[in-house]
Amino acid sequence: MLQSQLFTKTQKEAPKDEEATNAKLLIRGGFVDKLMAGVYTFLPLGFRVLKKIENIIRKEMLKAGGQEILMPTLHPKHIWESTGRWETMDDLYKLKDKSGKDFALGSTHEEVITSLMKKFIISYNDLPKYVFQIQNKFRDEPRAKSGLLRTREFIMKDLYSFHSDEKDMEDYYDKIKAHYKSIFDTCGISRETFITFASGGSFSKYSHEFQTVTEAGEDRIFLCEKCKVAVNSEIISIQDSCPECGNKNLAEKKAIEVGNIFKLKTKFSDSFELKFTDKDGSEKDVIMGCYGLGPARVMGAVVEVHHDENGIIWPESVAPFRIHLLSLGENKKSEKIYNNLKKQGIEVLYDDREDVSAGEKFAEADLIGIPYRAVISEKTGAQIEIKRRNSREVKLVNIEELVEFLS
RNA sequence: CGGGGCAUGGUGUAAUGGCUAACAUUUCCGCUUUGGGAGCGGACGAUUCCCGGUUCGAGUCCGGGUGCCCCGACCA
Description:
Layout: H1 21-28, E1 32-36, E2 39-42, H2 44-63, E3 67-68, E4 74-76, H3 77-81, H4 85-88, E5 93-96, E6 102-105, H5 110-117, E7 129-138, E8 153-163, H6 166-186, E9 193-199, E10 206-213, E11 219-224, E12 229-232, E13 251-265, H7 267-272, E14 275-277, E15 283-285, E16 287-293, H8 295-305, E17 307-308, E18 311-312, E19 323-327, H9 331-343, E20 348-351, H10 358-368, E21 372-376, E22 384-388, E23 394-397, H11 399-406
Parallel strand pairs: 3-7, 9-12, 19-20, 19-21
Antiparallel strand pairs: 1-2, 4-6, 5-6, 7-8, 8-16, 9-10, 10-13, 11-12, 11-13, 13-16, 14-15, 17-18, 21-22, 22-23
Helix pairs in contact: 1-8, 2-6, 2-8
This protein binds one RNA strand through residues 9-20, 28, 34, 36-37, 85, 89-91, 107-108, 110, 139, 141-143, 145, 150, 201-203, 207, 218, 257, 260, 262, 264, 290, 292, 310, 328-330, 356-364, 366-367, 375, 377-379, 385.
């Protein structure tokens, strides 16, 4: 992409209100725009990052046997009444149509998916099934905060699993834990992200959260450095011990919840009478699990974890582009290299602007944080100067070496 | 929802109750320049968040709203 065509601009200074690093850098770099508290537009650069993260998640969900669908955002009141949550969920956005009928904006989709699957799950032959979506959720948060970390409209991947017995659900639940680990690993935050015991709500003793340790986080967790497992402060006091190894020496950390998985069991199948006929002809409740993960929150967490004083340092897997090509008054040479890289299928942001100083291009490149920076200038001759965003070391290479290195 | 802070061109800031609201940056034009937000000259850009009050006079003082940020409560 030609940087001269990008409609967004970077800012030297962050809006004075913002305190969270992810908010400051993402706004300064032109990744997101805030429409109101907790509601953001994803601009071209930010949109690319978001899609990268979504695709990492999507790929992993497909590996886990998930089938992707898209459920509606607008929900009729009656579906929420089926579970009693129309009254009890106080972060549900409610609205009326012209005739006075009540609706809700979906904050989660157990109601919709359960009533959907009732139409298709009839016998044990139809189980297990795994269904997911990546979709916008709405929650009437009393306090949106910290940039992308806590918003009122947000993107969520929600996977729901349907099983004929608890054992099968438990096995799948553990399998998803492993897939989640792999997602956070690919996104470059596995070192900071820990599986965390949390309250199970009304369904079970524990649920599991995936918490990324960062100062901007709003949760407190107690981390067992040995097991790399944590406990949410909501269900533990400091004198408690690691649920895995009994270690009493836990480290208190601030963290942000990037994923949460639950054993729903029959909570929703009961409400919707989602049953199946087993082999012996008897009718049984379908056992459910649900598994949430927030791509936009992951994006914010990645920035919190990977940045320096000059800007963002995107991990390659989620970067908006692979390489940032800067032309310092050498557009003829640069254009050839740009076209060459594009032909190789390498995602490149080409800073072709002619009226922008070298210093400004460097500063913007650091702010935007693309993993590799290539510079073409009078100095570089027929070669290309290449530098990693997270390193100071520069190297001169020719185009063949560059292409080979990047592919 | 309780507590605290803030609100002035797009962004960041300045302005004893007193003249035409200033500066930097951004943007635009011209020249110059190309290795860390470069230089010179010029131009555009504001109903000082809103409503009301005090005053001869309000960006500034008072009252009430609204918005944003932070702390807490809340958080499938």
